[in-house]
Amino acid sequence: MAWTSKVLVSITILALFVIDQGQGCQVSTGAQTTKDWWETAQLYQIYPRSFKDSDGDGIGDLNGITSKLKYLKELGVTAAWLSPIFTSPMVDFGYDISDFFDIQPEYGTLDDFRALIKKAKELDLKIILDFVPNHSSNESEWFKKSVNREKGYEDYYVWHDGKVNATTGEREPPTNWLQYFRGSAWEWNEQRQQYYLHQFAVQQPDLNYRNPLVVAQMKRVLKYWLAEGVSGFRCDALPPLFEVLPDAEGQYPDEVISGATDDAEDRNHLTVKYIENQPETIDMVYQWRTVLDDYQRIFGGDSRVLLIETYAPAWFTMQFYGNRTTNGAHLPFNFNLITVMEQNEFSAKNVQLAIDLWLNNMPAGRTPNWVLGNHDKRRAASRYGQEHIDAMNMLIMVLPGASVTYQGEELGMTDVEISWEDTVDPWACNSNPEIYEQYTRDPARTPFQWTNGSNAGFTDGPTTWLPLASDYDTINVETESQAELSHLKIYEHLGALRKSSQTLKYGSTKYQTLLENSFVVERILANEPTIVFAANFGNTVAYLNLLEFDKNLPESLKLLIRSVESTKNYNNRYGTTSLRLEPGEALVMSTEN
Ligand code: ISL
């Protein structure tokens, strides 16, 4: 080994050793290796209905998305995942699919989809589709055939005779199971004279994964869209994929009442043990991974990826990654930055807890990811406070692994209050005007804000399918692009930094809560500038001594990116021993000269 290489190796080892001596939390392995595209991806969720309308009907569509792919490229996005675009009666806005092999007519045609893929390829953008395996629409041919007990379809869904009440003699559902969207998870079908299971709406019957024909059919769905050129799938609603096996008499067990709520229609009324998080679900994901890997082996190209949607405890979620011998999903979504703050206040300590909970439970050698929002949750700017949206966008972009942004979070879009009359989300519609706000997911699904012109530039037509936000005159792409600094510009700067910085790609990570309510993340890579993120989540001024966090930091750091309200200047240097941070101020800095 030449002496220069020896010195390099020693410096790297020394650097890693120094990191390990630090206070606070850190993830090591700063060694530079090559990473596959998804390991450092900047992912972006498109909700097609609300992204861009191209034909004036007030509903977003595929041609609308195609016309805006360049926008995603400018943000730095690596791959966009599209919420469902398949044929659907739209009871759950595309999550109730009636034909898994075709496009919803109001969104366009298969040819429009092919044009979208072609344009994306030209721009070097990857497209990921939503795969909804748990259920179909009740208007699907499969369901109709199953209702008719047509050969091969008899057991496509979970059918049951139900019970007869010993006292009244009346027919009852087989169990007390509740759907997510309020009310019983069983629906009586007159024609077939049996109940069917639906963990979501009545119009979303659960497919029966104990039937090998269903397993094979859903693998066909994956292969069909892979052949159309997609780069992977976001797998919807995994926890309820399997239910426990019935006993020898064919009976299922009741769930225990949890006591968490008196509302007997609300799923939280039950402690769900038999209808979620079964081991067979993990195995099914491993099988889908094989489908994707086989496809790549046969047809070549970049890795096709599996993203998993699961709100489940870590012991279950982490198994999706795979085990010692088998690969599972590339990225089971990490919702901790959302869910920890649903149960606790938004604070630096709880941000740290959210990060710890993922990194400390993640199996070795796997890739973390950070989801800030999606179409099921309130807007990030509304959850954390508008003054913290830049900080949170910075956080997910400086942490190691993949970042996941829901459309509009880069602009700082906020929740739109939707009246009971305008409410369309089935979850809310299954409740009543007094309580619907605790269930509705409409506020985060309103049309994307492109300009301050008519209907925010979302559509040329007179109406929009959900009301527009009232603040679109200032919160929109056009206005924010023209501003000297804006949430959008900050997001773009972050995207560019992620592309250019070896440290953000390969560096080791250290993070810590400082003082009462400030938070710092540091990324370190030998022979590359160290990147430091610092944010004040509190409501008083904080003076941070960053040397308490890492004594090896220099006297001053160069400012790369600042939050909108910060009065600091790009490229100026700021001292590390007493860094003044205003409430809500967030910075990304570097040790470079
Ligand atoms: O929304 C939730 C929490 O806020 C979840 O309980 C959600 O219902 C669950 O994660 C599944 O969501 C997914 O599947 C649903 C669909 O309505 C959601 O939009 C989708 O993200 C049924 O397909």
UniProtKB/TrEMBL annotation:
InterPro entries, per database record: GH, GH13_cat_dom, O16G_dom_2
Pfam families the record matches: Alpha-amylase
Keyword Transmembrane helix: no
The keyword Cell inner membrane appears for this protein: no
Gene3D superfamilies, per the entry: Glycosidases, Oligo-1,6-glucosidase, Domain 2
Highest rank taxon of the organism: Eukaryota
GO molecular function: alpha-1,4-glucosidase activity
Keywords: Glycoprotein, Glycosidase, Hydrolase, Signal
SUPFAM superfamilies per the UniProt record, alphabetical: (Trans)glycosidases (SSF51445)
EC number: 3.2.1.20
Signal peptide residues on this chain, from the entry's feature table: 1-24
BP terms from Gene Ontology: carbohydrate metabolic process
Catalytically driven reaction(s): Hydrolysis of terminal, non-reducing (1->4)-linked alpha-D-glucose residues with release of alpha-D-glucose
Domain Glycosyl hydrolase family 13 catalytic: 45-445
CDD domains per UniProt: AmyAc_maltase
Enzyme class: hydrolase
Annotated family: Belongs to the glycosyl hydrolase 13 family.
UniProt protein name: alpha-glucosidase
Organism of derivation: Drosophila willistoni
